[in-house]
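Appendix B.2, paired examples.
Example (i):
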Amino acid sequence: MNKLYLIPLAVMLALAVSTNSCSRADAGTTSATACATDDLENPRPFPHSAPLHYPDLDKVRINDSIPSQEKDYEGFRVSFNKNNGTPNWVAWELLGSETDGPVKRSNKFREDPDVEGCPTPADYRHSGFDRGHLCPAADQKWSEKAMDDCFILTNIAPQNNSLNTGAWNTLEGKERQWAKRDSAIIIVAGPIYEPADTKRIGTTGVRVPGAFFKMLAAPYAEKPRGIAFVYPNMASPGNMENYAMSIRELEQIIGYDFLYTLPDSIEDIIESSASFREWNRRN
């Protein structure tokens, strides 16, 4: 495993604060279909999306020593860690057209019997932690099945209420704004564990993470861009920019490889710089 995966949380946050100032020129946007390089013969992993795309952006490489059972749900993909009882990562594409819809929030949390180590709702009951979504319910209003699937506990990790209802929720709202602006964005989210993160909840022994990450990429923008965030699993006050970093820096911290199916030139652009101001612009 990459030794940088074990960097203390304080170092990660210091890294985030020190790197949020890097930027590129403001980029315009275009449709998801206009900038893609594939042809129509390549099957799309998200059948609800546009037919032209960069394939397999919802795939993440992780160290072989990390337990992982991958499973596709409606609208998102999970790598589940049976030892932690939480996902290693959850990945999805969010289209601007999917940021709103008629489907109401389900709240039907449940286990997946086909996934080894999946917790039960009872594991979270009276634990002191929220059932924190990695792929949020508000991204799934476009489909009854997608909404139902996102409450399966393979998409959940123990999250401090102040983070879940505060900074994490704010970031989720921003993601929907950015998806509307850029036509489509790729998102990968997951917990971050350090050796000191030994607390477990419930009879299944769900491990409580010390932090959470999110990676965002806009590969179909006129000038592709990316950004990542790391939040400690506690109240995270202050400007979102303080928690931002480049995707490459996040990869060094957790040892994952994102967006490896992109052409190298585009991957390098997306992963090497991160301007929160550019991401947060209105248009």
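Example (ii):
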Amino acid sequence: MKTPYLLVSFMALFALSAYSQETIRMQSCSNDFISHQVDSLKNRYGSDGYVLLKEASINMESEYEMPVIVPLNEGSWYQFVFIGDYSSRLYEVRMYDWKERMVVFRQNRWGDVDGNVISYTYVPKFSEFHMMKPVQINKQKKKNLCGYVMLFRRAASPEVNTGISAAPVANAVAVN
């Protein structure tokens, strides 16, 4: 008596899982143009007194956000960089704090001066996890778009001259 019920329930679970939505998983990618930009930005921020904490190349799909979760410490200066595929038309990054409030929104279009690079400075008010959600829109290529994210932290050394004013969050757009 129990066997038919188990068999039917197993088949129902199998059928539901077959129709479930496919999950986009983070995978690395390689793009020579982006690699050149990454090297240039590492040199630039390194000479400005920033230390590279995390970096990752990510294989993206057009119009799908790729969440990146990072732990940030209160009062530290961070520099976030997202580099999108050069052929995309729109690049966007939203960053949320632990309470899911949007704290940064940046958007570039293909013809903008910054082009495929979004970079912003952020000083968190609390030590907590933050989520950065980069997205790019490409009309020709829907899949296999290469993206690159980097997180820098300003070195605590007082003799480093970064050329940054004392105003908090110089380049970020704060949203409350």
